[in-house]
Amino acid sequence: MKGLTVRWSLADAPEGVEEQLASYVAGTSHARFTGMPGLAYKTWRSVPGKWFEGCYVFADDEARTAFQETFTAGAADAPGSQIIGSPPILIEACEIVAIAEGAAGFVAAPRA
């Protein structure tokens, strides 16, 4: 499987940006990625005041490359960039070595 990480810095973002991002994910972004062809799953992660990121796992290199090229071309205008006020500081492809599902199971939800 092929991974992609997109990270924004929150160091200079406006106060309350984490809640704005969480609301955007719940109201718009989650639905956009649910059922996306070639995408195995996506998670949204945040460390308040430090960073916000999307972690993508694609079924193959072709799907990742297509998404990465399209996203990178418009990264400065992406909704996350607009909310945060700056473009991503990192767009990085990676290899997913393994995935394990714990006994608690996996729950796909627009807000955790």
Which SSEs are present, and which pair or pack?
Blueprint: E1 2-9, H1 17-33, E2 39-47, E3 51-58, H2 61-73, H3 79-84, E4 90-95
Structural class computed from helices and strand pairing:
alpha+beta
| Average pLDDT rating | 96
Span between termini: 24 Å
- The CATH topology name reads Alpha-Beta Plaits
The proportion of strand residues reads 25-35%
Outline: globular
Task: Kindly give the count of domains.
Answer: 1
Description:
With 112 residues, this protein is of the alpha+beta class. It has a single domain, classed as Alpha-Beta Plaits (2-Layer Sandwich), CATH 3.30.70. Strands 2-3-1-4 form a 4-stranded antiparallel β-sheet. Strand 2 and strand 3 form a beta hairpin.
Features:
112 residues, alpha+beta, Alpha-Beta Plaits, four-stranded antiparallel beta sheet, 28% strand
What would a concise description of this structure say?
This protein is of the alpha+beta class and 112 residues long.
